[in-house]
């Protein structure tokens, strides 16, 4: 029974994250979002030693600059060998989405926010109105 419940819960989580795949973005030609906007306000990166992760933390705000909770963010790491790792993370109680990257590679890494959504709403990701969408880090 516990295993069944665990699988059901995992299915719910996977379904919620899958919703982030179809994150709406501004229509082509639009300059910036006016209402129901999701904008990146900050990306903070951390580097750790000994093959333990690099990490990017992402904060989102709405069109009024207010903190956003419950959003699903799509982020992508590009590694020094040009391989990419795409992940989804939910904005948690700390107000940020966390994107760890476990790798032993060294060199220059790039992290890019590809999209964001709040499942079940009409919020759209506004990269043009964002403070930053791409950062690089070297280790």
What do these coordinates show?
By secondary structure, the chain is mainly beta. The chain is 13% helix and 40% strand. The N and C termini lie far apart (46 Å). Residues 1-23 have low confidence and may be disordered.
Structural class computed from helices and strand pairing: mainly beta
Query: If you compute it from the alpha carbons, what radius of gyration comes out, rounded to the nearest whole angstrom?
Result: 16 Å
Biggest beta-sheet profile = 4 strands, mixed
The average pLDDT value, as a whole number, equals 80
Give the helix tally: 1
Basic shape: elongated
Side by side, the strands of the main sheet go 5-2-1-7
Percent of residues in helices: 10-25%
Strand and helix order = HEEEEEEEE
Oligomeric status: single chain
Which blocks of ≥5 consecutive residues have pLDDT under 50? Answer: 1-23
Terminus-to-terminus distance: 46 Å
Features:
mainly beta; 1 helix; four-stranded antiparallel beta sheet; four-stranded mixed beta sheet; 139 residues
Summarize the SSE layout with pairings.
Elements: H1 2-19, E1 37-47, E2 54-61, E3 72-78, E4 84-90, E5 97-101, E6 108-117, E7 124-125, E8 134-138
Parallel strand pairs: 1-7
Antiparallel strand pairs: 1-2, 2-5, 3-4, 3-6, 6-8
């Amino acid at each position: 029974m516990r295993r069944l419940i665990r699988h059901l819960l995992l299915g719910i989580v996977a379904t919620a994250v899958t919703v982030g795949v179809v994150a709406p973005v501004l229509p082509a030609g639009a300059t910036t979002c006016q209402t129901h906007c999701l904008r990146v306000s900050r990306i903070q990166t951390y580097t750790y030693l000994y093959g333990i992760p690099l990490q990017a933390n992402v904060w989102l705000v709405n069109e009024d600059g207010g903190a956003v909770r419950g959003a699903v963010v799509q982020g992508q790491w590009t590694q020094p060998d040009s391989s990419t790792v795409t992940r989804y993370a939910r904005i948690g109680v700390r107000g940020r989405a966390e994107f760890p990257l476990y790798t032993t590679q060294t060199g220059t890494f790039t992290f890019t926010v590809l999209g964001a959504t709040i499942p079940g709403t009409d919020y759209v990701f506004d990269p043009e109105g964002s403070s930053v969408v791409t950062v690089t880090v070297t280790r």
